[in-house]
Amino acid sequence: MTAALSLERVTCTFSGARGRYTAVRDASLDVAAGEFVSVVGPTGCGKSTLLNVGAGLLAPSAGEVYVHGVPLQGINPRAGYMFQAEALMPWRNALRNVMAGLEFRGVASGEAQTRAREWLARVGLSGFEDRYPHQLSGGMRKRVALAQTLILDPEIVLMDEPFSALDVQTRQLMENELLDLWAADRRSVLFITHDLEEAIALSDRVIVLSAGPETHPLGEFAIDLPRPRDVAEIRLSPRFVELHEAIWHVLKAEVLKGYAQGKRQ
Amino acid sequence: MSRTRLALYQVVLIAAMLAFWFAMTTPGLVSAPFARNTAFFFGKPVEVAKVIVDWFASGKIYPHLGITLIETLLAFAAGSVLGLAIGLWLALSPTASALADPYITALNAMPRVILAPIFAVWFGLGIVSKVALGVTLVFFIVFFNVYQGVKEVSPVVLANARMLGASSRQLLTHIYLPSATSWVFSSLHTSVGMAFVGAVVGEYLGSAKGVGYLILQAEGVFDINTVIAGIVVLTAFALLLDYAVTKIETRLLVWRPRTAETEQL
Fold first, then answer.
1. Taking a contact as any Cβ pair under 8 Å apart, which residues of chain B between 156 and 175 contact chain A?
2. Cβ <8 Å between A101 and B162
3. Is the model's pLDDT at B262 over the cut of 60?
4. N or C terminus: which one in chain B shows less Cβ crowding within 10 Å?
């Protein structure tokens, strides 16, 4: 079976003021249909670069991206992207933000509104249709962004540390909601995080990246924890602790390397 | 200081200044030759009030005010549309922007009020020459704001819209234009003020109607009372205009976060 998304020997080199910088070198990874894959790595290691390549927002310097076996050119139309930073349009209220994608695709306004209302209800924001992003809390904005991405029914969902700006409680709630939504119609998810616990709790598979520059995958770990999971409870199970130890063993050296590099700069 | 007390002091301040003005120009309170001199140069408050009352009572002022208002609005509208269109164009086309850059800078640095005589020759002494002057003043404010607005569109919001399937045309209408218009609105006070300046200065330099024309006529016969009356009416009118702009602004920019949303009780 061909993977929903596969990056093959992708290299990304940027030329900047301080000379050439290779963020990612020879990175290959696959996401199978319906699979939840997390990528963890030290901060600043080029995780987002990989995701942008998968989204088609960034063309790799070398290497190929395949979507269901077809080489990707330009924006990946089968992917939805949830950004780390605020990505909602501040001049649109919640409802009009959620329906934006449908509007861009030429869906009639009435139908788009009905579906946007349904999605706002699914992420628990009924009654907040008229609020503008600045009138919503950080967690609510993330829910709107989630609805905005999922309403288009993407086959592949790319998520770039979507919950990193939230407080711990809101974050766990959002993680559980994400798992519920994912379990309902099993899309492929490529989830980027620097939080190993979050990665293990959510995923089927965790990929560990090396410290930058010239980031590449170091190892892969299948997460055989039973589903459905509750992210807060699963952290206490013995198998979780085992997996955490095994992955952390690989990750720790990279985090220290990344930290040392950060200090030198 | 409490609000009422502040208002009270403000009234006392203006009353004191009016009283001082009255005292210095009234024979009997000061020596008669001195009063004659000061009255010639500074006018008399009571005479100024009489002129204003007469203007409004006889309705003589309305056609002049109307002309000035029409010139202001036309200059504002034309300058904004031009600034918006050219600002968007130059901001989105690097070549055009690089080509035009030195000339835009030069035109902006030029004291544009000096164009008034040329416009009078080109467009005559009617409304058009005043509107043209106002347009040159408004255009640059709007232009620079739009240019800035487009350049500062959040790259994340832009990438998000592209992932949601926006075509380059839709990016223009749904991302760049709303972002740019918000910058235009944020400069609304300045640009309406500039349109007003253009209208009045244009009238003052040569016209047959308008409040600026009234002032010019009165100055010709050393009627300082009427000159001051004209200035007072213009100031009041500018304040009204500014108030209207504030009202429009709060209506149009509901989506924009305000720094302080708490209310003093």
1. 156-157, 159-167, 170, 174-175
2. no
3. no
4. C
